[in-house]
Amino acid sequence: MGLKNIYFSGPDGSRKTSMAFATKFFLEARGRHVLVVPFPSESSAASPILRLALDGRTHLGAGAMDLLFVADRLDVAPRLHEIRGIDPDMVFIFDRGPADGAVYAEASDSLRNEPIGLTSNVVEKWDSKFLEMFPVDLGIYLHSSIRTAKELMRMRESYKPADNLDKDPAVQQQIRNIFDAYMEGRQGWKVLNVEPKSGETLDSWERRIIRDVLGLVSDTAGHPEWLEAKNCLISNWRVQQFLV
Fold it and tell me: Is the pLDDT of residue 10 over 50?
């Protein structure tokens, strides 16, 4: 099977991490070795300041954010390459795409009339190199409104009043606008609208979104039969515990 690199992108509250782990468990149950790779990473020197900026506890310009994400990926790439050399069939699931950090910074700076970031030649060059090493076999952009993200976080009791969704709603909306424009027409990417349907409960919404995500994975992998109800992990507690 050729599916080795899966990317999840989306704004705050769109369930990127939840869907990354749901996909991990789904593929592991089918005999694949899977590694979820978060950005920012958990060990690079750039990671602490990036996490502060993404959590809204400090402000970095788009250019600085771009370069820190480049440094983060530069630190991670050799280790991923080494893992892939040991296990050529290892599936990497990337929790955030290469440009996600730049989208956040671009949104913030554009509202300050200081647009810079996604057009940076240095960043584009490195992102292209990273994608040459780990090309997008399947990219999933999870589109969600601010209202939906806040409501789902409240229902899961993971919402806090000081959350980014409340701190600067104008930035959050701009993030979504830039994401929508940036994702349009990107090769290998699918846009998945995660807005709840009328009358859906939290559980039924989560099961539907997981099924939609895993349906994209199954189709891309060339194994549509994977989503037969008797084999699906949607109700498995290992998936449910990560939906927070």
Answer: yes
pLDDT in tens, 101-135: 667 667 766 665 555 544 445 666 677 788 888 99
pTM, rounded to two decimals = 0.82
Please report, rounded to a whole number, the percentage of residues in the chain having pLDDT higher than 70.
Answer: 71
CB neighbour list of residue 189: distance below 8 Å, 6 or more residues apart: 7, 9, 136, 139, 140, 141, 183
Take residue 93 and report the two structure tokens written for it: 């699931």
- Classify each residue of 97-113 as buried b or exposed e, where b means 16 or more C-beta atoms within 10 Å of its C-beta: bbbbbbbbbbbbbbeee
- CB distance 7 to 140 below 8 Å: yes
CATH topology of domain 5-240: Rossmann fold (3.40.50)
Yes or no: say if 226 and 218 are a contact pair by the CB < 8 Å rule. Answer: yes
Helix (H) or strand (E) holding 93: strand 91-95
Whether the CB-CB separation of 12 and 159 falls below 8 Å is answered with no
The pLDDT of residue 147 is 81
Q: 93 phi and psi, to 5 degrees?
A: -110, 115
Q: What six digits make up the tokens of 144?
A: 């969600």
Nearest-CA neighbor of 182 among 92, 129, 95, 104? 104
Mean of all residue pLDDT scores within the chain = 76
Angle at 40 between CA 104 and CA 216, to 5 degrees: 80
The one-letter amino acid at 115 = P
Cis peptide before 40 (omega within 30 of 0): yes
Distance CA 97, CA 40 (A): 10
**Which amino acid, residue 153?**
M
Q: What's the CA dihedral at 11, 221, 237, 210 to 10 degrees?
A: 40
